[in-house]
Amino acid sequence: MMNSENILKKENKIKGFVDIQRNYIINILKSIEGLKCLILDNQVASFISLNFLQSEGFELEVFLFEDIKNPNSEKLSYVSAIYFINTSKENLELLFDQLKKPSFKEYHLFFLSDISDDIIRKIAECDIFDLVKNIRRVYFNYYAPNNEFAHSNQTNSGQLVSKKLSQWESNDLNQLQIIEETIISSMCSLRQIPVIRYLQNSDISLQIGDRVSSKLKNIGISYPTDFERGKSLLLIMERREDPITPLLFHWSYQSMLHEIFGINANKITHDGKEYNLNLSHDAFYENNLYSNYGDLINALRSKLESVSEKRQQNKDIQSFEDMQRILANMPEFKKDTSITSKHLSLADGLTKVINKRKLMELSKIEQDVASKESKKDQFTTIDEILTRKDVDMFDKFRLTCLFCLKYESSDLSYELEKHFRELKPSMEYIDKLEKLIQKCGRSSRSQKQIGGYLTDKVFQIYNDMFNVI
Asked: What's the rounded Cα separation, in Å, for the pair 183 and 178?
């Protein structure tokens, strides 16, 4: 009925999470011969779409992509079905129904969550035609926008931090399980059983640490030769330990795009257009993810000069050989031109917002507050900014939060907060400011002093960047 071969096999050295996800998908598709139909649930489809294009599937003989909730009723006895799904009750019922009345030549089942003995037994009972060829547990159920970073896409996880363990509801426990599964999958993808450290006075850190440790231990016992043990450190922290970083404007390309436009599943909507930021098909983005604003502009200038030079070469036709060369290079040239045009549009949009919101000026002040002790001077500067009409209310809010966190309980902090309230901002800003001090204030943090993690060296890097610009 099935092949229970372990998917956790050794692979060539890869860069990180993006490569891991692509490796999983491409290797699996290559291992199954003939025409294929890829069947996904909504969550798995969102994982895969980040780093794997439909056109790549066509090249690997995947000619159908289906949602498990909307199956194709047509009989396709010459096509292999490949399922990438979670083991939810709804998904399993749909799978069982399909196995009882099969539409495909054979079935290869890849689950992104744990497969119990009961599930395997039920699959065996439903597979009356002996068409199931693979049942495997795969580990890539996380969002991977780039190789160095993976996340669970849980936007309301702050509620877990603000509540005590006894106050957690079913929705909170579900979020905790998703975060836990993301960590376990990322560790298994990296082939690591890490040493785990977490905050002693944090309910959520304790819960995640214990649950992840227990599951990774069991996985390590099941697959003793597939993992490195004790060579990595998993550090579980809460945002309250570093409330400053999200309040600062960060100047790397990816950070600016997310801060100003918002990156969702590697896509950006700007001026009514959608832009894809797929690392595997956009070398410029991959090479400039962490470039600061000044370096980005220089890289764009060089890229534009390169494209212009190629366009000029295409005009210089002296022979049939030149024509053949131009035709051979045309697809790559079109792709290059499209990517350059995309990033020029995005950079232009960033520049307009940066200039409009006076972010160059404000960022210097943010860094000064975060890294230096100069309460009176900083208060005077921020207090003056609050009176300015050319500064956005959101940026006034960020500066007020920074100062009030840095100099909590000081008279100047109370005075600045009072001045901010007098501007009559929305109640959302007032509530967030109060909750920020309450949840991330000195009494809640292990590290009492703010600014210890921003060294003079880091501050000098920002100064150098501003000088470049």
From this structure: 9
Measured CA distances, 177 to 113, 165, 368 (Å): 11, 14, 39
At 16, the amino acid letter reads G
With b meaning 16 or more CB within 10 Å and e meaning fewer, what string describes 368-382?
A: bbbbeeebeebbebb
Distance CA 53, CA 45 (A): 11
Q: In angstroms, rounded to a whole number, what is the distance separating the alpha carbons of residues 469 and 466? A: 5
Q: At what angle are helices 393-406 and 375-386 packed, to 10 degrees?
A: 160
With residue 84 as reference, give the H or E element that holds it: strand 76-85
Distance between CA atoms of 90 and 98, rounded to whole angstroms? 13
What is the distance between the alpha carbons of residues 394 and 357, in angstroms, rounded to a whole number? 10
**pLDDT tens for residues 79-114?**
999 999 999 999 999 999 999 999 999 999 999 988
Residue 102's CB is within 10 A of a number of other CB atoms, namely 19
pLDDT at 159 over 80: no
Q: Which residues make beta-bridge pairs with 81?
A: 37, 107
Element (DSSP H or E) covering residue 198: strand 192-198
Q: Where are the beta strands (DSSP E) in 127-227?
A: 132-137, 143-146, 149-151, 192-198
**Quick check: pTM over 0.85?**
no
Report how far residue 250's alpha carbon sits from residue 264's, in angstroms, rounded to the nearest whole number.
Answer: 18
Q: What is the pLDDT of residues 278-314, one digit of tens each?
A: 888 899 999 999 999 999 999 999 988 888 877 766 6
Any idea what DSSP says for residue 281?
Answer: G
State whether residue 268 is helix, strand or coil. Answer: strand
**Residue 359 in tokens:** 């972010």
The position carrying tokens 């002040």 is 365
Q: Is 212 helix (H, G, I), strand (E, B) or coil?
A: helix
pLDDT over 90 percentage in the chain: 52
Q: What are the angstrom distances between the C-alpha of 42 and each of 132, 172, 266, 416?
A: 23, 21, 16, 47
d(CA 431, CA 437): 10
Q: How confident is the model at residue 453 (pLDDT cuts 50, 70, 90)?
A: very low
Question: Are the beta carbons of 35 and 80 closer than 8 angstroms?
Answer: yes
**CA dist., res. 277 & res. 145, Å (int):** 9
Q: Name the residue type at position 428.
A: E
Pairing of strands 149-151, 143-146: antiparallel
Dmax (CA) for the chain in angstroms is: 80
Characterize the bridge pairing of strands 62-67 and 76-85. unpaired
- Contact indicator for 284, 339 with CB cutoff of 8 Å: yes
